[in-house]
Specification:
The protein is mainly alpha-helical and 243 residues long. The chain has a domain of 116 residues: Ankyrin repeat-containing domain (Serine Threonine Protein Phosphatase 5, Tetratricopeptide repeat, Alpha Horseshoe), CATH 1.25.40.20. It contains 15 helices and 2 strands. The protein has a two-stranded antiparallel sheet with strand order 1-2. A hairpin with a 2-residue loop joins strand 1 and strand 2. The relative contact order is 0.07. Keywords: ANK repeat, Repeat. This is Ankyrin. Pfam families: Ank (PF00023), Ank_2 (PF12796).
Length: 243
């Protein structure tokens, strides 16, 4: 069956399904699910989708990464449209499956440049406060990739802007927050959004390797960002809030 999938032999696949649909659903379901996701082929997916649901394999995970079919679908790079991600979401795949590296489907969407699907995942209620084993939250990834629309969507959902990277594997970024990531992009729109558009005030005193965000801006000579953060800190000290 995997050879049929890899060769894009739609006629033979349809014949096999018609001959023994129970075998497809209950014996081959998981294998076929990940095979068709890998080849990123919509017609074959449409043939098999009802059997994935009937066989209860839609939320299966891979043995090597613990990721779901949605994780795999989203790993197609930005120039290759992950055409099966949205159909999987429409079928009702569990959005909150977390891989062995603590990555959500939202991490994958952002890592591979699929901002439109990232926004859809946020709107559909995916967990938005997961720190992966590399110390990255979904918000940090959105900021690093300068996906402004995703940052806004996360803030509108009430994302926790003060989650910290405490992983030993990322020593150079020890204890960074989303605001530290934002400073390093030198993107004023993102800084403004974090300071003013979220439901939670960022902790301006949080340190990354003993440096507050304003000190990182000063070190990098991002004068406009440094000025914004200095104003924000002064306003908070005066009880005004915001910038």
């Amino acid at each position: 069956m995997e050879r049929i999938i890899s060769s894009h032999d739609i006629t033979t696949l349809q014949y096999a399904v018609d001959q023994d649909p129970d075998k497809i659903a209950f014996r081959w379901g998981t294998t076929l699910l990940f095979s068709v996701i890998q080849v990123n082929e919509r017609t074959m997916f449409n043939i098999l989708a009802p059997h994935f649901v009937r066989g209860g394999v839609l939320n299966s995970v891979t043995q090597d990464t613990g990721g779901s079919a949605l994780h795999v679908a989203l790993q197609h790079r930005v120039r290759t449209v992950p055409i099966l991600a949205w159909p999987l979401m429409q079928l009702g795949i569990d959005l909150n499956i977390v891989s062995f590296e603590r990555r959500t489907a939202l991490h994958e969407a952002l890592e591979h440049g699929h901002s439109d699907l990232a926004v859809k995942l946020i709107e559909m209620g995916i967990n938005i406060d997961i720190i992966d084993t590399h110390g990255l939250t979904e918000l940090m990834l959105a900021i690093t990739n300068e996906a402004v629309e995703v940052v806004h969507a996360l803030l509108a959902r009430g994302v926790n802007v003060n989650l910290r990277d405490e992983t030993s594997s990322s020593f150079n970024w020890s204890s960074r927050t989303a605001l530290h990531c934002a400073v390093r992009t030198n993107n004023i729109d993102i800084i403004d959004a974090i300071l003013n558009r979220g439901s939670q005030r960022p902790d301006l005193s949080a340190t990354e390797n003993h440096l507050m965000a304003v000190q990182v801006a000063e070190m990098l000579r991002f004068d406009n960002i440094q000025a914004m953060l200095t104003t924000a800190m002064n306003n908070i000290g005066a009880g005004l809030g915001g910038v």
